[in-house]
Design brief:
The chain is 27% helix and 19% strand. The chain has 130 residues and is α+β, with helices and mostly antiparallel strands. The chain is globular. The protein binds adenosine monophosphate and zinc ion.
Length: 130
């Protein structure tokens, strides 16, 4: 059983802030910023790519509700909502989770930066992807 399944089964303690029949949300052990929360489905999916659409729809609705609550109650100025899929994308726990990371200012201990790498052929990519 994975570590988040153990948290859901209450075999491992967590700081739970929300729970319903499908979803649980608990504070991330390493608080990137104050209020950093993980929202997980109770049924195990590895990540967004293998999750059934109905569960995913409920998960993102709960995530939105909690992101509003956390932003307001922690008096944050913004919030990052993000999810990693697979190790190459930085996923370390292979149980689907959305991170809610409230943002206070530019000195927060998180940097999300989009850098352009090599030039891509957008027409070829468009044909590949549409
Ligand atoms: P990711 O790298 O997107 O897979 O994120 C996994 C997150 O799970 C990290 O931010 C960890 O700090 C967090 N984490 C790992 N174990 C626990 C735990 N037992 N309770 C709360 N958060 C955890
Ligand atoms: Zn699991």
């Amino acid at each position: 059983m994975c570590i988040f399944c153990k948290i859901i089964q209450k075999e491992i303690p967590s700081s739970c802030i929300y729970e319903d029949d499908q979803v649980m949300a608990f504070l991330d052990l390493s608080q990137v910023t104050k209020g950093h929360t993980l929202v997980v489905p109770k049924k195990h999916y590895d990540n967004v790519l293998d999750c059934d659409p109905e569960t995913l729809a409920h998960l993102i609705q709960v995530t939105q509700m909690l992101a509003k609550r956390i932003t307001e109650r922690c008096q944050a100025k913004g919030v990052n909502i993000l999810t990693n899929c697979n190790e190459a994308a930085g996923q370390s726990v292979m149980h689907l989770h959305f991170h809610i990371i409230p943002r206070y200012d530019e000195n927060d201990a998180i940097v999300i930066q989009f850098n352009e790498s090599e030039k891509q052929d957008l027409d070829a990519l468009k044909n590949l992807l549409q």
